[in-house]
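Suppose you are handed only these lines of text.
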Amino acid sequence: MSSISEKSMLPSRLLSCLIAFSLFLLISTSLSLIEFHQNSFIPKSLLQFTIVDTQIPVKNPVFDNRISDKGKTTIQDSNPRKLSCDKSRALLKVYMYDLPPEFHFGLLGWEGSVNQTWPSVSDRNKIPSYPGGLNLQHSIEYWLTLDLLASNAKNVVRPCSVIRITNSSEADVIFVPFFSSLSYNRHSKPRGTEKFSVDRILQEKMVEFLKGRKEWKRFGGKDHLIVAHHPNSMLIARKKLGSARFVLADFGRYPVEIANIEKDVIAPYKHMVSTIPDDNSARFDERPTLVYFQGAIYRKDGGAIRQELYYLLKDEKDVHFTFGSVQSNGINLAGKGMASSKFCLNIAGDTPSSNRLFDAIASHCVPVIISDEIELPFEDVLDYSEFCIFVRSADAVKKGYLLNLLRSVKREKWTRMWRRLKEISEHFEYQYPSRDSDAVDMIWQSVWRKKMLTELNVHRKNRYSRSQLK
Ligand SMILES: *[C@@H]1O[C@H](CO)[C@@H](O)[C@H](O)[C@H]1NC(C)=O
Ligand SMILES: *[C@@H]1O[C@H](CO)[C@@H](O)[C@H](O)[C@H]1NC(C)=O
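From them, the structure of the protein bound to 2-acetamido-2-deoxy-beta-D-glucopyranose can be written out as follows.
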C-alpha cells in the first residue's frame, strides 16, 4: 500500500510471499477451528487458543475513559467479576524493566514512597492520571503499562492476552516502560539554565541502561517492545534501538531499516471526541453535512494537499472544511460536527497519520482517507475498505472527483459501512481496565502476531544453517 512498506519488502519478495501465504494458512486454520464473534469480523478468540474462559462482558458502555471536566482521564469502576490469568493462559509472557519512576509515572507527577517503582493499580482512585488535552492522543504508553501492572493485581478483571512475569529468561517480550510521548510533549525543551532537555537526558540514560542489560544482549534487543507513538518521541534513541519492536503511529519519520511493517506495530491514536453510543448514532438522513474536515494547515511534506482540497471544497454548501487545530475546548464541537456528517476527511498532514481517523471512527462518520503513506492499526485482521473510503492524493485534487465520488455513495452502501463502523469501533478504545478486543488487547495480539512472523523467518533461515552444524 505505501511505498515505505513496499521498499522494505523488495529485498526478499519471494520470502514475503511465503510468509504471507503461511500467515494466511495459519489464520484460516484458526478460523475454521474457532467460532466467530457475531458482531465483529475478528473472532474474539481467534488468536487466543489458550483461553478457555472468555466470559468477560464485551459491550459495557461504562468503560469509556472520557476527558472529564478537568481535562484529565477518569477511570471508572469495572464489573468485579473475577477471572484469573496465569502464565499458562496468556498469549505473551512479558517482562517489564523496573525503570525508575522518572521514566514513566514520575512524568505524570506521581511520587511513590521510598523505593516504590510502580503505583498500585488495584485501587483505581490511586492511579495517576495522564495529562489531558492533546497529550492524550499518544497516551498508548500509559495504557499498555497499566495493563501489565494490572495483570499482577488480584482484583482487576481484564483479558489474558499478556501477563507480566518477573523472570526475564522466560519472557516472550521485554517491555520498556518509558513514557516517551509524554517526555517529548512535556520536556523536549531545555529549561532555564539546563543545557539539555529532560527528554534527551532520559533517552540517553535509557540507551545506556538497555545496552548494558543481559536481556538486551540476549537477542540484540529484538524481543524488546518500545512505545514511541508521538512521531517525534525517541528522536535521539531510535537509531540506537532500531533492532527493537516499536509501537508507532506511522513510519513517516523513520528510515525503513529502523521501523517497518514487518517488525513494528501500528497503534491507534486515542481518539479525542467522545464515543457515540451505538443506539444514539445518527443515520444517513440524520447527518446533514456531507463532508467534514477540521485541521491544521500544512504547507510542507505531504500536507500541501490540505490546502488544495480546501480551495476545491470551500464553497460547497454541505461541506464543513475549516483550518485551525482543534484545541481541547473545541473537541466537543468537532465531535458534534463529525457525528452529524456522513463522511469525515482524513488528509495527510505533516505526518501520514493523525488522530482524526480515530475521531471519525468513534463518531461513526465514514472516514475518507487521503494519505498515500498511511499505515493502519491491525490491518492484518481488519479490512478497512469495509468501513473507509480510500482516495489517492492524485485523484483527490482533480476538480469534482471527490464530491462526485462521495455523492455517488447512496444510503444503502453508506449504511453498510456505518454498521461496520459501529462493530469495529470497540477495537479503538483505550480504557482501564482493558477489555476483550479493545485497543490495548488488540495491540498485544498484534505484537504476538508480529512475533510469530519473526519466528517463522528465523526458523526458515535455520533450515540449512543448523543442519550443517551436525
Ligand atoms: C531503599 O533502597 C536502598 C538501596 O537498595 C536501601 O538501602 C534502603 O533501605 C531502602 N529503603 C527503604 C525504605 O526500603
Ligand atoms: C528463570 O527461568 C530460567 C529458565 O526457565 C530458569 O533456569 C531460572 O532458574 C529462573 N530463575 C529464577 C530466579 O526463577
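What can we learn from it? The chain has three domains: 2-48, 88-270+445-452, 278-428. Residues 114-115 surround 2-acetamido-2-deoxy-beta-D-glucopyranose (ligand 1) (CB under 6 Å).
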